[in-house]
Structures are given as structure tokens and as C-alpha cells.
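sry for the spam today, last one i promise. C-alpha cells for design, 100 residues
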């Protein structure tokens, strides 16, 4: 399963990468610190699973999901509980609260 991590917090990205590496079927394809670069990547590459932060400069994770024509399995990551209802309206698989 090809996985993409998008988070502007280096420690959160590292933690996700370490956790995902413990699952044999998950392969980290790429990591980005902002949603704009992730959008460019996702329009050109197939990804099965997306770990996505919500609050990022430029474009939020919510905006990224809304802009994708074809969506992978999405797990939002955030330190804020207030986005959970809106996230699940976008049919995401899960919503993880930081710190993990």
C-alpha cells in the first residue's frame, strides 16, 4: 500500500513514518510539509493511503481533500478536535489527535 504523509510538523511526520514502518504492507512513497506540493504529487501519482494534517500554511488539509478528483484512503491528523465533524463529512477513514 503506497502511503503519503503530509504534515508541516517534522516531529509528527517522523512519528507517523516510524509507526507506518511497523506495518509491512505500508510503503511511504513521499512526504510533504504542505498541501500544495502534495496536491501536485497526487495529481500525477497514485497513492493508496494519505496521512494528512489539517492546519498548514497555504492550503489546509480539508481544502486539499475537497480539491481531489480521486481520493485515496484518508486519515486526518490534527492537534485540534474541532475539525473532526467536517473531516468525517468528507468520508475519511479516521481522525487522529496529536500527539499520537
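last one done:
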Amino acid at each position: 500500500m503506497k502511503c503519503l504523509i503530509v504534515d508541516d510538523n517534522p516531529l509528527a511526520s517522523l512519528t507517523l513514518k516510524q509507526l507506518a514502518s511497523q506495518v509491512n504492507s505500508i510503503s511511504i512513497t513521499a512526504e510533504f510539509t504542505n498541501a500544495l506540493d502534495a496536491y501536485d504529487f497526487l495529481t500525477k501519482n497514485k497513492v493508496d493511503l494519505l496521512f494528512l494534517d489539517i492546519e498548514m500554511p497555504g492550503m489546509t488539509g480539508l481544502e486539499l481533500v475537497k480539491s481531489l478528483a480521486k481520493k485515496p484512503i484518508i486519515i486526518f491528523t490534527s492537534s485540534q478536535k474541532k475539525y473532526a465533524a467536517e473531516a468525517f463529512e468528507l468520508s475519511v477513514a479516521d481522525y487522529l489527535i496529536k500527539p499520537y
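Helices lie at 10-20, 35-44, 61-67, 84-89. ok im logging off now
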